[in-house]
Design brief:
Layout (H helix, E strand, L loop, with lengths): L2 H8 L3 E4 L2 E4 L2 H4 L6 H14 L6 E5 L4 H11 L3 E4 L10 E6 L4 E6 L7 E9 L3 H12 L3 E11 L3 H8 L4 E9 L2 E6 L1
Parallel strand pairs: 3-4, 3-7, 7-8, 8-9
Antiparallel strand pairs: 1-2, 5-6, 9-10
Amino acid sequence: MYEKLKASIMRSPVIDKNGYPYLIHPVTDGIPMMEPDVLEEIIDWMVSVCSFDCDRIAAPESMGIPFAVPLSLRLRIPYTVIRKRSYGIEGEIKVSYKTGYSDSDVYINGLKKGDRVVIVDDMLSGGGTLSAIVGALRENGISVTDALVVFNKGSEIESVNKRLGMDIKRMFDISVVDGSITVRDA
């Protein structure tokens, strides 16, 4: 199942980013290009594993956006982009987090206490980005009803699930060792 996505993963280059093995793929980087059939497999999977019992789909910039847009169109649920820059809008939520290769901030706008969101993103690696976003949303009275990622890279998903008290849904578990990619169904 999802053979087009699996085949595209196996063709992906891996680069070293300060000791971090970084997979380059259309899902994670938007390059070389996203084939429509691959995107359709991803969207079909997301719809099949999630009820989308929410008021909004939330997508971290930038690689959550390619999933939020077609989901919004298909499900008729509005989406919000969690941006990498501040707009200074009233109610803006600043979120600081750490990934395997950088420290960053993102900004959440347009959500309010009582809203229910589903988060969609490309990859879970160490869980820093997702954990920080979920924590900030909850601190502001916003319920996260589900979280979906295409790839889980690394073995930390169970500890992230436990820490967040939720079951993050993922399409594939992938690993990169010495430049070789392994793909396993989740």
